[in-house]
Structure formats: C-alpha cells, structure tokens
Amino acid sequence: MDETRRDVVVVGGGPAGLSAAVAARRSGCRDVLLIERDRILGGILNQCIHDGFGLHRFGEALTGPEYAQRHIDEFQDLGLDAMLGTIVLSMDRGRNLYVSSRKGFTKVSAGAVVLAMGCRERTAGAIGVPGTRPAGVYTAGAAQNLINLQNIMVGRRVVVLGSGDIGLIMARRMTLEGARVEAVFEILPYASGLPRNIQQCLNDYGIPLHLSTTVTSIHGKERVSGVSVARVDENRRPIPGTERLVPCDTLLLSVGLIPENELSSGARVELAPRTNGALVDDGYMTTIPGVFSCGNVLHVHDLVDHVSEEAERAGESAVRYLDGGTAPVEPAVPVTAGRGVGYVLPQRVSGARDFVLSLRVTEPSRDRAVWVRDGERKVARKKMVRLHPAEMVRIQVKADKMQGAGRLEVVVE
Amino acid sequence: MAESTNRFDVVIIGAGVVGNAVARELSRYDLGVAVIEKELDVSMGTSSRNSGVLHSGIHYKPGTLRARVNVLGNEMMKDLCRDLKVKIQYIGKLTVAQDETDVETLHRLKEQGEANGVPGLEILDRDGMEKRQPGVGGIRALWSPTTGIVCPYGLTIALAENAHANGVEFFLGREVTGVDRDGEGFQVKTAAGEIFQAKVLVNAAGLFSDRICGMLGIHEYRIYPCRGEYLILDKRLQGSLSVLVYPAPRKGGSGLGIHLTNTVDGNILIGPSNEYVDEADDTACTAEIMAQLKKEGHELLPGLSASDFIRSFSGLRAKQVPPEVGGFKDFVIEKREDVPGFINLVGIESPGLTSSPAIAVMVREFVSDLVPLNEKKDFISERPGRAETFAELSPEEKADLVAENPDYGEIVCRCEQVTRKEVQDAVQNPLGVRTIAAIKYRSRAMMGRCQGGFCLPRIVQILEGDFGYRPEDFLLFSGNSRLFEGRVREGLHADG
Amino acid sequence: MKTKELVCIVCPNGCGLEVHLSEGESPEVLEVTGNLCDKGPGWAEQEVLNPMRTIASSVLVQGGVFPLVSVRTDAPIPLGKIFDVMREIKALAVDAPVRIGDRLIEGPAGTDCAVVATRHVERA
Lengths: 413, 496, 124
Prior knowledge:
The structure holds 3 protein chains of 3 kinds. Chain A is of the alpha/beta class. Chain A has helices at residues 15-26, 64-77, 124-127, 140-150, 165-176, 195-202, 262-266, 304-322, and strands at 3-11, 32-35, 51-53, 62-63, 81-83, 87-91, 96-101, 104-115, 119-121, 137-139, 157-161, 180-185, 209-210, 213-219, 226-231, 244-247, 250-253, 257-259, 271-272, 277-278, 291-293, 333-337, 341-345, 348-349, 355-361, 365-374, 377-387, 393-397, 408-412. In chain A, strand 12, helix 6 and strand 13 form a beta-alpha-beta unit. The longest helix of chain A is centred in the last third of the chain and has 19 residues, at 304-322. Chain C folds into 2 domains: 2-49; 56-117, CPE0013-like (CPE0013-like fold, Roll). Helix content of chain C is 17%, strand content 36%.
C-alpha cells in the first residue's frame, strides 16, 4: 500500500477546510494537503444557491457558490495541493489516515490534522415519524442537492417539517420552481430560522407556518399521499383530537444537523454530547494531540463567515503545534454552559492568548447580556438586543482578563 | 384461449426465503422451474423484515413439523451460507431466568430441545453467564450455541440468484390472480393476462398463501397478519452484545418481551412487537410501539442516546390463528391429495427463515413423487463473489482491489463505505431488478445513519450517467413509488 | 390609520417595528416606531410600500460539466415581479463555458437588474 507523509492534512474541502488550509499555508507551512470526497471543492456551499453569505466577511450578500469561489481562488492562487474524489475512511490516534479514491487506497501520515468534514442531516428514521415508508420523503438538503445540482424535481405538492433555515429556503425554492408548498410545521412554539427567512421564504409566498405542530404520520403505500399533523403540548406531545390530514406528495424534513464525526470517533477523539462535536481547547485542538476540528463538524454554524474565521484559527494552531508552540501550555481552565446557555466552546482554554467563545442560548429573549464569569468575577460581557437559539453568539475574551481564572461559566442575564 | 407459451414442470408462487430455497433445491435437477412473484423484487415480504435469527429449536414441541425443520434447517445453514457467500454467525443465545419459576422453564426448554435433537444445550450459572455476556441480569440461563444470525434479505436474494444461475426463471412484478386446473396440471394466471402452465404448483406465497389456496378451492386456511415493529440502532453500539439474550418465556407475560438482536452487519435491532393487523401489507410503524421500543432500548442499553436510532421498520407474521384464539398452529407443508400436483406451504412464520433449507428438501421429496428427478451434472452450487463487503476487508485487500479496479476506490455511501463497483453490481443484478430498494438490499447503500442523505444524489448520478436513467425511471420499490417528478429545467439535458 | 408590524432585518438586533400608515388606496407612512437605529424606518417604509427582493435560481446549461448554472439577480427587484423574472429564467438555456458574473439576462421583466451566473461551469 502506498504511504505518504504530509505536515498538515485538512479533511474536507468546504469553507472550513479551505480556510484552514489557506491559513496553514499563510502561517508558513509549505506542506499542506487538503482531502475532499467530492470531485470539486466548495462543500455544501455548492448547493446553497441562495444569497446572504459573506455579509460580515466580504460586506456583500453572496450566494453559496460565490462565497466558496472566493476561498477556492485563494486556495488555488497559493498553489495548494488537494486530493479530490478522495474519502478518508479511517484515522488513528497516530494521525495516520487511510484514504480511498479511484487512484488507489493509500495511507497518509500527518504531522497535524484539521478535521473539517461538515455535518449531515437528521433523518425521518432518526426522529421516528410513524406511518408508512413511501417514496417522496426527503431531507431538505438532499432535495436541495437534487434540485440545484442534478436538475431533478422531487415533488409537486410539499409539506415541510421543521422551520430551520434549510426548510425555509427549500420552501421558497420549490415554490419558485412551480411546486405548491402547503405549509411548514414546527414542533417548537417559535420558529428556528432567521426572521429574514420567515419573511422572504414564507410570508412573501403566503406559505403558512404552524408552530407547536408536528407530523404524526406519513400516508401513502408507494408515494406519499399526505401527512397527518397535530398540535403539541408544552412537552411536545401530540394533543389528541387535534390531528388533521394534509394531502401532499412530498415531505421535506429540516429537523436538525448533526456534525459528521464518524472519522473522529473512530480515532477516539472525545466528543461533547451537547454539540456532537469534538471537545476542543482555545486552539481548536481536540483531545488527540495534533488533531484539530473546525466548522460544522465541530458545531453547527448559522453564518459561514464564522466558519471561515474559526477555521483560520484552527489552521494557524495546527502550524503552531507543528512548530512545537501549542504543546502543553495546559488548556486547563474548563468553560461550562450555565443558565440560559445551551453549549459553549472551546470547552477548555489556556488563558495564555486572547480567544473567542462561541455559544448558543436555550431560548429566545430580548435585551439581555451574556456574561463570562470566573466565580463572581466578570471576565467578559456582551450586551445583546436579541438572543435566539438559531443565532450563534461570539464573545471575545482577552487574555489579560483571565488573571489565573479557575473555571469559566457562561450565562445569560 | 390466451397464448400461454410459459410451460414449466414446477411453478413456485412467491419469491420469499422459502420459495427461493425451494427453487434453488429444485434447480439441482433437470426440471423447468419458474418462480412467480407479485412484487418487483424478491424478498419483499416477511423475508426481509425479521430479526434474522437462526433459531436452535428449543421452543417447539417434539414431533411437530416446526421442530423438525427448524433443527434440520439450522444444521444446513452453515454450508448453505458458505456456498452462497452469505454472512452468518453462530453467536449463541442465553435464555435468562429471573426467578425459580423461570429456572423450571429453562429445564423444560432444555429437555424439549434435546428431544428435538438440538446440540450443546447447557444450563449456566452466573459465572457461565458473565463469561458469555458481561453484565447480563438473571440467576440462570440456558445456553444454546447453535442459535445464530444471518442477513435475511441477503440469504433470500442469494438463493434466488443461485437458482437463477442454475436455470430457474423468475417472473417478477406478476400478481397471480387465478389458477385453473386441466388434465396436464395448472394454469396460473397473472394480472397482466399471462398464463403459466405447470405440472406441479408450489404455494410459497407467505402472507397471501391463503388466497392462493382459495383459488384452488381450498378454504380451510386463513392468514392473520401479525405485525412486529423494530428499531434499528447505530453501529456505534456494536459490541454491546456478544450473544443473543432473551427472557425466559412466561405464561401470560406482561410487556412485549422485547429483546436486542445483533445483525451480521453490526447494527442492533430492538423488537419485535406483536400486533394483529387487518391488511397483509400493512407494514407501517406506530407512535405507541416506537415509544415503547425506545424505552426498552434505553433500559437494556444504558449508553444509548437519542441519536443512535437510525430507522424503524415492521414485518408481518403469517399467523394461522386469530388473536382471540391464540396459541400456535404447526407449519403446513403438505402435498394435497385432493388437488394432485399442488404442494401447499401455509403459515411459515418463525422459525421459517431457519427452516427454509429443510422445507425445500421436504418439497423436493414431494416433487419427486410427482415428476421424475434427474440430478444435473453441472449444478453450480456456489455463488461468485465473497460474503464480506468491501468495507469489511483488510486495508491490504482493499488496496489490491482498488488497484485492480478504480470503481472500488470511489466510495458512494459514506456511512456504510459502499463502493461504486458494489453499487454498479447491485444495479446489474442477475434478476434484472431496477428499483432503488434493489440497490439498497444488495449493496447496503442508504442503510446507514444518514439514510441516503449523502449517497442518494450520488447513486442518481451513477444511474443517470452509467445506465441512462431518466427521472421517471427512479422507482423506490414498486411501479408507482416514483422518487421524482421530472426535471427542474427541461430541454437538452447536459450530462455531467 | 393602519398599523403593520415587521421584524427589521437590517441587522441582527431584529427590532420589532410598527409602521403607521394613512388610510386609502395609496397609503403613506406616517411614522415608524420600535427601531433602535436610524436605518430601520427607511427599510420599513420600503418594505411596506414597495418590498424589494433578490432572488436566486438556476439556468439550464448546454454542453457543460453541470446541467445547471446557479444565478441570482444582481440587484433587488419588486416582490410582485418575482414570478415574471422566474418565467424568463426558466425559458433560458445557455452554452458552456459560463463564468461567475456573466450577465445572462439584462433587465428581466422590465426590472432594473441583471440575472448573473454565480458559479463557473466548464465545457464538458
């Protein structure tokens, strides 16, 4: 079996992987390899043809492919190396990766690895939608791929379950292409997607959004013929007597994204239950020395601009690690999610450098502040007019504020 | 009179595991054999929708047909799976006693099993139990080493493909609507108006075997479909179970007696439940049962998390007794004297999978009474290929395969590591089945945790690019289960 | 006087705005309340009287490595014109190669924008 050794290997060629690779190169590493399973670079952005990407990073509202192209141009201008159509099948603690492509099954050993594999969609099977199993049930992202990249229409009369942004975007997309979207159903009492998307994907087209409602059954022997929906109580259980039948031929699911950490688990990278992504320190290094994680595989992002930023830091850290810099300045200060906070990462920090905390809150609120505390002492604070679980909050923490902190807790007040 | 042209010595109705086992057994002989199946693929009924367990035979009364074919079939499975390249593991089973009444049951089962000829049965104490399954509960257990697991649809498909390689003709997508009798035998009519002429007719129609009986004027049988729902768990939990663990059966026991079963592919199944339903094709899943299965799953596997549930499915048992009567009826495996030439198989529920090779031998004996059997010199007993998937090979074996054929290097299904070559082979299956489900059951693509989210678009690309499929050609499992509704943009479609 | 409620999308604060309109066939905006900054009222007035949108879709490509090229309008268009613009997008087929930024339709449906390609599509 062929074996090669590279200094920095980046797994994944979407915005995270591309950013990390470019950052690694810019930090001085000349031996960077990016491995991407598709035949082209760009990752999930290739199918996200709607705009709204890059408002922070470029000051423009780009579409997904345009944003990806900015990174791809940078990557190619620097003459960086990529193995396309190549999948990493497994990785061990020694940073040996077994990769497969039409060219061969080979082993790549890495000085440092940056994991940037993105995420996958939660399925109908995983949430256990009762009923039959006909054709016509798709996750929103799979439908998006088929429609935008393969010129295939998945159905004509659509129900969307889940008011996350992907579901809203696809509701609009299907409508523009001549399908009829009957409704979007959301089990929570509030919408998961951005207000902009509620307006521009649903209200603009008269598509109703029904909160506190879920799909209780799929009907149809061969192709979807309809779904039963019911209102739910405060415990998200269907309320008897509220069921009604919605005829349709397609059910699109937008019920959550899960970081795709199969590779990481195989290498025994420790994952955090709250994010389903790796436990990392302030350099985005996982519990395996020399293995870094960034982008959606670390935690699901809502703004790709943040993905690029985070990945740059991870790429820089990978090079520092190679140079012997990151080593045990023990990231010994744990960071935990307190009241009102769903999760926060990194989960442990060294305090030796400025760092960024990324977090999500547990419920919508207005006119609050997010505090980073060491016991009673305030380390950082960010006032927020609007807080929503769908919108990641980022807080800069200065190293000089850490002052020998014992542990950090992040809360909403 | 319609043009018949389809004349066979033996016609088998139903391409489930029993029908295909019979077909394969009969294909050893110089006979014209046909299998007629109403679905577009084989193994579309109960044969794909069960625990995949090869039972040892301890549960059945000595002297019953069930007990006999179970034990015989279990013995035959090892060589059969080796020849057909089907994954099989004799992992053994602990039937666990929680109290003294249960222990008495264990002794009864052991005696019963031994009377049935089941080898290796042993009552184990805690030490013995711990050795086999660390952390298992209970005070005593009956160890049955011949209990195993097999891929049920893998076996059913393999039987069909080997039968086909040996000359059996498969007529898929044909529903039998009537059977006439004449001097020469039977005229089997299908919904499309075809007629198949047979000297011998074998009823292996499973959930619909009573309907075939009815077509022949036999009204003493009725099938009561009894549904069992399952949940499939992520392969992450592989290794949680070393052996099968069942509770000792109790009279009038509460709960569903739900247990965990390993699959040969590394998943764990929770189930099955027990619920009589009205329709013989009602394989829906219900909220109540799924909730119950989840709850039991969490109790049996403390490390289980919500994201470990991949999918639910259900299968129907062809029970011969209605719920108000209860109990069991023995297998019906008979050569009818009142309808000469008709071999009737009714009510082949559990242990039907295990028994299938032995049932096939019984049917062969019946056939030999009706038509002369001459063994073929050139019978192909082995199926080409290997039992393991690409994903299960060693790194060196993988490297060699990819070097030989780049289609092995391209991974199409990320969750199950299914290669382009395996998908192509599945599309080009010997029986000519062109559904998406056919690819799934033959290659394992779309069976992983993302359930096709990643691989379906790639499979679509392969089918369009390599095999010229258009959007309307994509059928999930049947003629009306279309995946798509045309194109987004019509016109000259550029191939990518 | 009529009142419309909107969630402002100019920045992540998402202020809940109340737009007070005069009665009649062509209402005028009398007042906007609820905004934390001065960008809100301007946006709200536009949104209520003449909402503008950018749209994204796909155009058929002939002879390319992909069957479709993703496109968008390079400037907002009136909400009411969306389906007219979509009709022109659906009727178009272009030949590969296509480059990001290529202007594929000028002023579709009489609007003040162009439909531009948002990805490269090489020749097959």
